[in-house]
Design a protein that fits this description.
Oligomer: single chain
CATH superfamily: Metal-dependent hydrolases
Bound molecules: zinc ion
Order of helices and strands: EHEHEEEEHHHEHEHHEHEE
CATH architecture: Alpha-Beta Barrel
Length: 267
Amino acid sequence: MIKCNYHTHTVLCDGKDTAEELVLEAIEKGFKVLGFSAHSPLSGEDWCLMPDTKEYRKTISELKEKYKDKIEILCGIEQDYYSEKEEGFDFVIGSVHCVKVGDKLIAVDDKAQIVIDAINEHFQGDSDSFAKEYFRTVSDVVNNTGADIIGHLDLIEKFCEQVSIFNPDSEVYKKASEEAVQELCSTGALFEINTGAMARGLRTTPYPSKRLLKLIHTCGGDVIINSDCHDKRYLDYGFEEALALAKECGFERIAYLSKGKIEFAEI
Ligand SMILES: [Zn+2]
Ligand SMILES: [Zn+2]
């Protein structure tokens, strides 16, 4: 497979390594393209770029030049649904990390207990209602962020191999998630197969679930493989499994971005 990753975090947001350490790792691993995707600034959130994107843009642009003969480097952004939009990145990953209740943002991927408490406090203990609100937001993520890539589609499943919070087989959950896929397929944005939670030891399979991946394929959507890397050791973690999963779900090609265009590699 052509080795690329477009979902990469550095010390400038919540990653462990500097951008240059990640570039060197990617070169070592024989990557064709490395796309950085810092978390867009979100007021009061220390896992995001702070206070703005200036230092990040400058850092990546210098590395692009320095390593241009060795690897193609892209300066993207992981645009959170609730942060302000900014133009001028090589690509945009649109992600929903929170569910909004009133003026409060509830993180869906921080700790399982936060999600459980929120379901009890704001959704009368009904996890389906929480899931419905999450997928309603996700269905609007391309429209709202201008995303080229849809990030970790069913992120609310992050802790579900450890603790049962949602029931993906319930009628409400199925309908909400499937409607989101159908809506998003009509935008033409790429869906990412994200191995991030596998690298953290939380999941044994990537996002999205097999059921949703099959639906994406049926609806004519395309996929791209990303590691959501926060640690250079895991830059291509689970890529073989992700590829096998894509094949199993019916995909015959994987997308990658290069020189400002979407390309496809047969699988
Ligand atoms: Zn994310
Ligand atoms: Zn990320």
